[in-house]
What we know:
- The protein has 189 residues and is mainly α.
- Helix content is 72%, strand content 0%.
- The chain has two domains: 1-51, Orthogonal Bundle (Arc Repressor Mutant, subunit A), CATH 1.10.10; 59-183, Tetracycline Repressor, domain 2, CATH 1.10.357.
- This is TetR/AcrR family transcriptional regulator.
Amino acid sequence: MEKMDRRVRKTRALLLQGLVKMMENHDIQDISVKELTELVDINRGTFYLHYDDIYDMLHKVEDEMFREFNEIMEQEPLGTPTLSSDGLLLEFFRFLDRHRDLARVMIGPHGDLTFVNRLKDQIKKRTLRFLESAQSDANYEYLCSFIITGCVGVVETWLKEATPQSPEEMAEILGNMLVRQLTFAPEPA
């Protein structure tokens, strides 16, 4: 049974590596099962043992990634809102670093808008919780939109770098940016 599990994990990992490689230059709708399986030297029948089609594979990979992401986002108790670089932000960047290649192509020009929107939604949920618990008087809707767009932009830039900074450095950089923004948020008129 363990051998089977290992083989399944290895097959899925190869397929994922191939999908990431293909998404660097192709939109998902332009990738066929035949091309993917030829690239990774796996029989098409083996692909269909795991996935219905390329879209099913992408959906399942995203779901698995977001399960892990949600666990990270929920690990810090609500009563302790913090932007410290050794807490949630650090775990967020460590998560992205573990999934760097996949996250890079998903956010990139041939990526998946669903992935980006799910990422934004998770950041928004956490940001709203932070703003509410910090009892900020700022207009939540605009400030939250600004923070989400900024966070995704920082992540996108970091993922594209040939020699990226460490997750620890990025957590500190983004944490400082967020603290400055929240500190200088204008009071409503």
